[in-house]
Each structure stands twice: as C-alpha cells, then as structure tokens.
C-alpha cells in the first residue's frame, strides 16, 4: 500500500481549524505562554495594579513592608512642615509682643512635630522659645521647666542655658544660675556674658548663704530656749564663734 502524507501549510499551522488531537505536552511552559521569566520580573512594574497573578507571595510581602514606611516618611515630613509653619507664626507673635498667643503657636508646633530624630531641632527650639515668652511674662518657674525640656533634647543649647540662668537669678537661685553660666563657658569659653554674670552672681550667692545660716541659727535658738528654759538657762549661755580660716562655727558655754 502507498502511504500519502499531507504537508501542513503555514496557514494551517498558525490558524488550525480544530484543536489538535495529540495529548498535551508534559514539558515545562515557556515565557511565551504567559509566564514571567526572571528578566521580565526584574523589569516589571512593582505597583499592585500591575502585579502578575503568579508573582510569589514573598515578593508581595516585601512590597507591603516597604510601602508603609514610605507612607510614614511622607506623613512625618508633612507634619514637620506644619510644625515649622506654626513655629514661624509664633515668632511673629513674639516679635509683636503677643507672648500668650506666641506660646499657643509654639505648643501647636510641639504637638505637630513627630518624635523622630529629624524633629529634635524644632522641638528644642520651640521649648526654648516658650521659655523666653514665660520669662517676659514673669513666669520664671515655667521658664526653667521649658529650658530644661529644651536641654534634654539638646544639652549644648546655649540660649536655653542662658534663659534658665536668668530665670534662676530672678528667683534668687544664685547657685543654680552660676551653674548654668559655668556650663555655658564650658561650651563657649569666649562667652563674656556668662563670665560677667558669674562675677556678679558669686557675691549674691555668698550673701544668701550667710543669710540662710543666720536664719537657721535663729530657729535653733528658739528651739534651744524652749528646752533650756526648763533648766533656767537659755541659748545666750552658748556662744557661736566663727573660724575665719574655715568658715565653720564652734560653740562655747558661758555662765
């Protein structure tokens, strides 16, 4: 018998009239069948709308981890910009003598500024600016608190040290004021204002120490008289003598 073979034309191959009756091949499918190759995956779009349905689960998880961080960075940057705007408004109000209103704008800036490393400068500045507002309003305790907060964020903040020192002086905390001025000199040895303040404050601090000693001795005398009176004596029978070399006192009994 003669076997007749029919040769398929290009048209028949590309446009078959019916499905092939041959069984499906067991060989792996290639990229032309809709599967992503390695190079396609590297060049493909990473947006969720363009993610291939066969993309691996780990790749999707990686994208989900990165996206929230980018979103947070954007929100933090926007919050910093809003905080800076509020701070600038506070500066204008302070310059026009509206200290109470300036305080509220600085407070708003502190509420807006996120607690991240890049916001340390604006937060320390706002606390220091609130301190100078309180100083102008005569609220020296609040001035000290705000300066301390600024210095917790920025320990080398000279303005905060200076303003806290001024508030301490107003409250006659001379020792504390001297300590702040000395800290300024450690950070800036050429600071004449701090050096002059120390020279002016040291005699005041010494005078206050002596006054406190006298007050303490007076209270001790009152207590002593109440006890010694039962024995027909008083503290006048005891004399306190100050040692000029050491500054300490010794007690002698006199009848």
From TrEMBL:
Highest taxon above the source species: Eukaryota
Region annotated Disordered, chain positions: 1-72
Classification via PROSITE patterns: TPR
Keywords tagged on the record: Repeat, TPR repeat, Transferase
Gene Ontology terms, MF aspect: transferase activity
A Pfam match: TPR_1
InterPro entries named among the record's database cross-references: TPR-like_helical_dom_sf, TPR_2, TPR_domain_protein, TPR_rpt
Composition bias type Polar residues, residue spans: 55-67
TPR repeats: from-to residues: 83-116, 124-157, 158-191
This protein's name: N-terminal acetyltransferase A, auxiliary subunit
Source species: Parasponia andersonii
């Amino acid at each position: 018998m003669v076997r007749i073979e029919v040769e398929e034309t290009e048209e028949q191959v590309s446009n078959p009239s019916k499905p092939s009756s041959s069984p499906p091949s067991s060989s792996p499918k290639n990229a032309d069948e809709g599967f992503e190759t390695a190079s396609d995956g590297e060049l493909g779009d990473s947006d969720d709308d363009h993610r291939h349905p066969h993309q691996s689960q780990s790749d999707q998880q990686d994208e989900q981890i990165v996206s929230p961080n980018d979103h947070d960075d954007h929100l933090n940057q926007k919050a910093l910009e809003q905080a800076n705007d509020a701070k600038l408004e506070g500066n204008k109000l302070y310059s026009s003598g509206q200290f109470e209103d300036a305080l509220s704008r600085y407070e708003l800036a502190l509420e807006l500024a996120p607690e991240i490393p890049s916001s340390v400068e604006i937060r320390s500045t706002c606390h220091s600016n609130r301190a100078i507002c309180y100083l102008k309003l005569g609220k020296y305790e609040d001035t000290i608190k705000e300066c301390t907060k600024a210095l917790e964020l920025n320990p080398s903040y000279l303005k905060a040290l200076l303003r806290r020192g001024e508030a301490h002086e107003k409250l006659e905390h001379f020792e504390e004021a001297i300590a702040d001025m000395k800290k300024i000199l450690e950070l800036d040895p050429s600071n004449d204002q701090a050096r002059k303040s120390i020279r002016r404050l040291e005699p005041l601090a010494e005078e206050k120490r002596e006054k406190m000693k006298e007050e303490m001795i007076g209270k001790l005398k009152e207590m002593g008289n109440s006890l010694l009176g039962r024995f027909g004596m008083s503290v006048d029978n005891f004399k306190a003598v100050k040692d000029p070399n050491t500054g300490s006192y010794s007690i002698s009994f006199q009848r």
